Structure formats: C-alpha cells, structure tokens
Amino acid sequence: MATRTRSMRARSTYRIDPNLERFLATVRKRFEFSREEFAMLAEKMTTAADFEAGDVMVEEGKRATHSSLLLEGYAARSKYTPNGERQIMEFQIPGDFIDLHSYPLECLDHSITAVSDCTIVQLDHKDISDLIERHSRFARIFWFATMTDASIHREWILNLGSRGGVERVAHLLCEMYCRSEIVGLTDNHSFEFPVTQVQMGEALGFSAVHVGRLLRELHDRKLVTKDRKIVHLHDWPALQELAGFDPEYLYLQPRKG
Fold first, then answer.
1. Distance CA 240, CA 217 (A)
2. Torsion over CA of 210, 212, 213 and 214, rounded to 10 degrees?
3. Cα gap 131→250, rounded to integer Å
4. Which of 22, 146, 154, 155 could form a disulfide with 183 if both were Cys (CB 3.0 to 4.6 A apart)?
5. Range with the lowest mean pLDDT among 11-20, 27-36, 63-72, 99-108?
6. CATH tag for 9-156 (out of 2.60.120.10, 2.60.40.10, 2.40.420.20, 2.40.40.10)
7. Are 103 and 66 in contact, with CB atoms under 8 Å apart?
8. At 52, which helix (H) or strand (E)?
9. Distance of CA 136 to CAs 22, 142, 143, 180, Å?
10. How many C-alpha atoms does 99 have within 13 Å on its Cβ side?
11. Do 33 and 27 form a contact (C-beta atoms < 8 A)?
12. What is the mean pLDDT of the chain?
C-alpha cells in the first residue's frame, strides 16, 4: 500500500519579484506575448511559497482561492484509491501552472504533491478575473494552458492502456525531455528528472522493481541512462521511434491570436 504524502500548508509565504521567464517561454512557444501583457501579469504575482518534497501543495476537494505557478522544483498530479494506492497522472515542471483548473472549478478532484523541494508564486483567482476583464486575450492563454493539460492526460491514458512496458517508459522520458527543453532545462540531450522509481511506477502502472528493469533495458539498448536525478538521452531519434512519440499533443507550434 502506498503511503500518503504530507498534507500541509506552505512552509513559508513571502513577497518576491518572481522570474516568470520559464512560464513566458511556454506561452511564447505558442503565442505572441507583449511587454504590456507581461507587466500586467507580473504585478499580480508577488506572493511566493515554499514546500518540501512530499508536501501536498494542493489538497483534493479543498476550496482554492489562488492558482500556483511552479518556479522551482517538480510536482506530481495524483489521485488515491480508498486503500491508499496512488496513481500519478502528470508530472509538473518549472514554468507550469500546476492548478489553473481550480480557477473555474474552485477546487480540484485530485491532489498535487511536491516531488522535490518547490517554490511557487500565487495568482489569486480574483486577479485572474481582473486580468481577463482588462485584457480578454488572457482568457485564451489561460484556457489554452488548461487544454494542454487535458491533452497530456489523454496521452497518458493511451500510454497506460496501449503501450508495452519499455515503450511506456520511453514515452514518458520523451515527453519530459520536450517539456524541459521549452523552458531551458536541458543540456546536450540531458535533463533533470528528480523522480524515484517508485514514483515512475505510480505514473506508469508498474512496481519500482519493474521500472528498474525497464530502465536497464533502455540503458542496454544504448538509448537512455537515468542517474538519481538526471536523464541522459543517447539516441533521441531511436528513443522517439521506440516510444511512438509524436509531440503534437503538446501543441508546440505558434498559434494566431
């Protein structure tokens, strides 16, 4: 049985002038984003909070008054069965709005947990409403972000239901590499991925032991090496082919409007 992670408030909350460049990188990959729009967003995002690995950052079913942009660290979107087993449904990386869904929904039907130590910056829901009222284009940008999350969820369902073991692991690593590259977190086909084999198993439907076997198979094929926190991709085209990875579901092409 999985052990539930710690449910708690942020360990500290403070005022900052946050570096929003990683979020802007995800937006600018898809849309033009003006200095005026940046200033409007930045003036609303000055409250930061810290979490330690294992903390529940957003609690399932709890009313939310703000959404959080992940500045540093990695998080997991997950649900629990009544007997405590966890299914991870997405990994969040710096630059992601981890709970933008809570703006229209007011609460989430799942929890978000810190995989590593994390820093977030908060955007109050009333300020989201104000941004949209002042500049309606924000509505499309925020909506697009939530729709991209939904697209990722659909791909994860396909990955769980229709791909074999080694292909399933390969596809996850391909996705995380592409998403990390957008926000400048790759280096010569290597990227940080501070996720344990247990957590990978919770995302992929395998035991930690089986995840270890599959990672060794990818290593033996000279495709991937995963150190404790770093993934090294040795043959990116071959890994994509093995996984059947097509990044179209990440919607990385520029869009009009």
1. 15
2. 90
3. 25
4. 22
5. 11-20
6. 2.60.120.10
7. no
8. none
9. 22, 10, 11, 29
10. 34
11. yes
12. 92
